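Data availability (excerpt). The following record was deposited with the supplementary files.
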Amino acid sequence: MYKAQEVEKEVLDFWKKNKIFEKLRKKNKNGKKWRFLDGPITANNPMGVHHAWGRTYKDLFHRFRAMQ
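Predicted structure:
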């Protein structure tokens, strides 16, 4: 197993053991609601690196909002 996979497993185990996601949901339960709609990449062209960049930014945005 690659080192990155080992680290990811350790982090996921930590989150599960300490119920981090449940705590996050409880913390944000009465917060302001927000939505983010994301359409398909493209139906007509092959995926390009710019699509991956966009997906990365969208993922970071969700994580940022969750941590606020």
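Summary of structural features: The chain has three helices and no strands.
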